[in-house]
């Protein structure tokens, strides 16, 4: 009957499946996702190539560090989505820039 006194599932937040708070990991996740979204949205405008490349680069760096320190699967899943969006934005930003367009053929 001891199992009746214990809760079946710990009260956990949206991003912490182990029941512990992870403020650093949650912050890195939010920053990476926001930078990835900004990078993807601005990738559609070739005149904003500098903003696209910069937000993509910073998003890749924060996402990589977030993967390094993440502790739960939910954090890693969100970081991979933000990291992928940041990388795609970075690639488009570099492709639209004048420094790289000579090598690509643009």
What this model shows, in words?
The protein is mainly α. Helix content is 68%, strand content 0%. The longest helix has 24 residues, at 73-96.
Quick description:
The chain has helices spanning 23-42, 49-69, 73-96, 98-104.
Provide the fold topology.
Layout (H helix, E strand, L loop, with lengths): L22 H20 L6 H21 L3 H24 L1 H7 L2
The termini sit apart by 72 Å
Shape descriptor reads elongated
Mean of pLDDT: 85
Largest sheet: none
Spatial extent as radius of gyration: 19 Å
**Oligomer status:** single chain
Which ranges are low-confidence, i.e. pLDDT below 50, for 5 or more consecutive residues?
A: none
Range of helix content? 55-70%
Q: How many β-strand stretches?
A: 0
* Structural class estimated from helices and strands: mainly alpha
Number of helices: 4
**Helix and strand run:** HHHH
- The portion of residues forming beta strands comes to under 5%
Provide key terms for this protein.
single chain; 106 residues; mainly alpha; 0% strand
